[in-house]
User: Fold these one by one.
Assistant:
Number 1:
Amino acid sequence: MRPNWLLEQPEIDENDLPAIGEAVIVRCPNFQCLAYRGRTNQWWDAIDGEELTHVLEIIYRFCR
């Protein structure tokens, strides 16, 4: 049986996306991490630079 979070993956509203390069905390299926959006709208781990393929939601945005 699939876990509930796989069945109910919320879409991130396009109007709520952070600016390119802005650091945010995101939730992925098995972890949370500091991440940023690249120029091609792909998510990247801010620490090790790995591509994040399943970002479920933005948890925290830092003050500007």
Note: Helices lie at 4-7.
Number 2:
Amino acid sequence: MIGRSNVHHQRSWLPVAYLLLAVVVMGAGCGADRVTDPARATTCAELVDAGRASAEQVLERLGDRTLAELEADDPSRPFGLLDPLLRPGVFASRAVALGCGESELADLACTAYQGLSHLARSDVARAYLAPYFAACD
């Protein structure tokens, strides 16, 4: 009988462990989605996150293309393929609506944009990123 009570006590933690596991799994699934659309940003930090998402898309679209290749595709607007991604008017109006100052956005961007340089695969892509990193110096 002594061995039997030990087995009972050893298994008494199982329901607690299952409950804890369920809470952790459900909590991980309920995390906030990353804001990628500047129009949906509700804070200056979310607006910067949307900017990073746009920068990632720009770098992906540029890939390893050269300026000559971009000009060959559209001589009058070599960067026209980026227009739908950049949306400067949307970012600017949302920054005003949220009360985000330029220095606050620059400070947030210095942190949020870290790690983007390894995504730049061409001179054009590195030139695109240069102003973001220059603001952090």
Note: The chain has two domains: 1-31, 38-134.
Number 3:
Amino acid sequence: MSQSPQNPRRALTQDEVFVLEQIQDMYGPQNTEDKVFFSDRNEAVLLVADRNGVQGMMAVLTNLAAWYADGTIPSVQELRDKWLTAG
């Protein structure tokens, strides 16, 4: 999905950046902020690629960040093991 006037690019929130950093640590630095796109609901989304460039999952950074911030995802370990692991 490309950016459009209806989906203008915005800066990621601090919490979304935190989730992106976890993805980069797990899957590699090729998962950059410029690869993030925004849904019609203004959610930050990333098609996560492994170190070989293979896309294995879609991460909605906005939702993951909100769930981590409000305690629905109670720890970084759970975020990484349960929510950011493809498969």
Note: The first helix runs from residue 14 to 27.
